[in-house]
Amino acid sequence: MHHFREEHSIIDWLGHVSFPLPKPHNKQNDYDERSKKRKYDNDRPLSPPISLSNSIGTKTDMVSPTKTPQTRKKRKANDANTEDQDATPTQARGILNLDDSDTFSLSSASVSQTSNRSSPTRLFPQLSLYPKGLERKPMDLRDRDLPYDLVNLIKEMKAIQRGRKVVPACLEPTIELKMYENEINSRLYSDFDDSVYDYEDNDWAEPDSLIENVMRTVDIALDCDSTQQDETGWNHLVHSPLLDLTLDRLPRNLVSFVPCMGANITARYRIPQAPGARVDYAMFINPKLEDDPRIESAIKSLQRGMPEASVNHTTFTPLNKRPISVSIETKRLDGSGDKAVLQIGIWQAAQWKLLFEHAGDAVNKLSFIPGLVVEGHEWKLVATTYKEGRTVLWTSQNFGDTLSPLGTFQTMAGVRRLKGWTEQVYWPWYKEHVLKLAPQSLPEKT
Q: Which InterPro entries does the record cross-reference, listed alphabetically (predicted)?
């Protein structure tokens, strides 16, 4: 009876309890709730930590929603920037980048759609299609298009490569003494036979210091090789000191050189659709050291007639008043010689275009312009010719290296030969046909 009353009272109590009715269903409330769930803290990562994501397995193979087109572009750009960081900087342009290696087409569609990558092996055939483009040909002495003067220079470089007359004769006694000092020196100088000495070269005043500098060049070059030094390191440690030793870079010299890694080609002289290109060094003429008083005035007149106030195909300030003759492009030992050849070809094509602008058909009297390509230890002669707006790049003839004392003397002899070409061939032609100065008559003897 007692249990019945308790049960009855509970039922009676439940009957008096009021329960809230459910609210009407609202779709907007559902949307708001879902929106709240999708919100996230901007400071939190969008994906699990690396240690976690790697353990997920096949789920990580799915495309992440965070990999937007924008981030993919950034990732590709970062990858491209790590490909060739030590190459000579190429001129900024939206079409191409010489220091990357991939595909390239000269069509307008590909220009707008492809990335800034190019391959020299693909670029040369494309550039050769233009009537005023750039063609690459080997230095085949049987080729009838090879100018006679260039054939002679190639033969001279071949003789230098064989070690003929590349060492000043004043060094012979010093080298013979060194050969007998110890076994190492006997190895180093064993190839210095009678044929290597030039008995007509008396320009070197301090033979002992010259030998020391040559050996220093060899030692540093071998160190750059073994430590895989980048292009900038090779330039600073090996190439610049060697050029300075060879050309005696002083203001008193008519022909000298300047580093010009940042020199851009003036846009109007560049081959259409070709990438901008730079070189590492330029051999130049210092007109102030010429005895002819007319030259300085002629240089200023030439500058005034140029929108860029430069006598060259670049606005690089140190060269504004100094005509460029021979250009030098360097690469480290990484197989990028084709890039160097392409860069110097485009660079000299612009040089020819400027010379034609001022000299007209008289450019035909300048049969070629030499250049140098340096790849690590190896030094090579290249040259360009020009006909009816078209440039042909002739490659190449090895002549020296920095692996040994004799190889370094061969390198110096080749560079000095091009200095002689600048003084004896290029500068007289330039004065007459670009500066429009008639050759001075020699004073009559009384």
A: PDDEXK_12 (IPR046797)
Give 388-398 pLDDT, tens digit per residue.
999 999 999 99
Residue 92, burial from CB neighbour count under 10 angstroms (0-12, 13-18, 19+) = exposed
- Give the pairing of strands 281-285 and 324-331: antiparallel
CB neighbour class for 151 (10 Å; exposed up to 12, middle 13-18, buried from 19): middle
pLDDT in tens, 112-164: 333 345 688 789 999 999 889 999 999 999 999 999 999 999 999 999 999 99
**What tokens were used for 94?**
């939206």
Contacts of 400 (CB under 8 A, 6+ apart): 160, 161, 378, 379, 407, 408, 409, 410, 411, 412, 413, 414
* CB contact at 8 A, 114 and 107: no
Residue 301 backbone phi and psi in degrees, to 5: -65, -40
Closest alpha carbon to 231 in 371, 330, 131: 330
Sheet holding 378-387, edge to edge: 134-138, 390-400, 378-387, 369-375, 324-331, 281-285, 255-259
By DSSP bridging, strand 390-400 and strand 378-387 are: antiparallel
The domain limits of the chain are: 134-163+247-433
Cβ atoms of 371 and 202 within 8 Å: the answer is: no
Burial of residue 125 (number of CB atoms within 10 Å: 0-12, 13-18, 19+): exposed
User: Which residue positions in the chain have pLDDT lower than 50?
Assistant: 1-8, 10-11, 13-85, 92-116
Instruction: Please list, in sequence order, all residues whose beta carbon lies within 8 angstroms of the beta carbon of residue 324, skipping any fewer than 6 positions away.
Output: 282, 283, 284, 312, 313, 314, 351
Q: Counting Cβ atoms within 10 Å, is residue 183 exposed (0-12), middle (13-18) or buried (19+)?
A: exposed
What is the rounded (10 degree) CA torsion for 39, 45, 49, 50?
A: 130
